[in-house]
Amino acid sequence: MSSVAGSEYNRYFLPGWGISRNILFSHIHFFLGPYATARPFSYQGREGYLVMTPGPPLTEKQIEDLQNLSRQYEQQAAERMVVSQGQPEQDAFINRPIRVQQQRRYAPNYYRPYR
């Protein structure tokens, strides 16, 4: 009987373009098994994920499935945000900028720049 703890893990970079962090983290075990892990990672200036698994890496089809699930997830999240702001649902656009309240920052009274 072999132990996963004693086996070698395959480590590889998965570019993050089009893959939602929530979707990858919630589906990684479905695609790669219970011992697979993923975490945010930057490789040669590109943002993505470091995936570690005792088995084979994700296939092209599995990555396409993650991208499709991510697109659906982001669209639903955009619709929820639009509805929560009281706008019509048909105005949902994934990359629409959303205004957030900014808090004013006050400098302490004792701060004086050097002259």
- Net shape: flat
Tally of separate helices: 2
- Taken as a percent bin, the fraction of beta residues is 15-25%
Instruction: Tell me the distance between the termini.
Output: 73 Å
Question: If you average the pLDDT, what whole number results?
Answer: 81
The H-and-E topology, N to C, reads as EHEEH
Reading side by side through the largest sheet, how are the strands ordered? Answer: 1-3-2
Q: Could you estimate the helical fraction of the residues in percent?
A: 25-40%
Count of individual beta strands: 3
Describe the structure.
- The protein is α+β, with helices and mostly antiparallel strands.
- 32% of the residues lie in helices and 18% in strands.
- It contains 2 helices and 3 strands, in the order E-H-E-E-H.
- The longest helix is centred in the middle third of the chain and has 25 residues, at 60-84.
- The protein is flat.
- It starts with 9 loop residues before the first strand and ends in a 31-residue tail after the last helix.
What order do the helices and strands come in, and which of them pair?
Elements: E1 10-15, H1 21-32, E2 37-43, E3 46-53, H2 60-84
Helix pairs in contact: 1-2
List keywords for this structure.
115 residues, alpha+beta, 2 helices
